[in-house]
Amino acid sequence: ILRGLNYSYSYLPLSWITGLIIFLISIVTAFMGYVLPWGQMSFWGATVITNLLYFIPGLVSWICGGYTISDPTLKRFFVLHFIFPFIALCIVFIHIFFLHLQGSSNPLGYDTALKIPFYPSLL
């Protein structure tokens, strides 16, 4: 992400947005996996993160299955931890498609159309 910001990658908005979505899904999946052992650290980690989400009305009760961290929360986190990698994989394919369609950022400013083909020239 920092390399993209440095090389003005934000001029390719579709690639930039899909990359950010992949990053956020990775963070959420890692958090859901952290909660799954259901120990003291996991419980209090889930409590702290869900308390950060209380500013959005109804979100915590929808995610946790109530207003407290309990068994429905663990089941929902397990399902989300299982589903999010597949969603991320689909978004990775979309991200690669956008990179292929738009091209990636070029830090040196070279024209990518000026290239020597590998097969007849170098082989």
From TrEMBL:
InterPro entries cross-referenced by the UniProt entry: Cyt_b/b6_N (IPR005797), Cytb/b6-like_sf (IPR027387), Di-haem_cyt_TM (IPR016174)
GO annotations of cellular component type: membrane; mitochondrion
Keywords linked to the UniProt accession: Membrane, Mitochondrion, Transmembrane, Transmembrane helix
Gene Ontology MF, one: quinol-cytochrome-c reductase activity
GO biological processes: mitochondrial electron transport, ubiquinol to cytochrome c
Residue span(s) of domain Cytochrome b/b6 N-terminal region profile: 1-108
Transmembrane stretches, start-end: 12-36, 42-65, 77-98
This protein's name: Cytochrome b
Highest classification ranks of the organism: Eukaryota, Sar, Alveolata, Apicomplexa, Aconoidasida
Gene name of this polypeptide: cytb
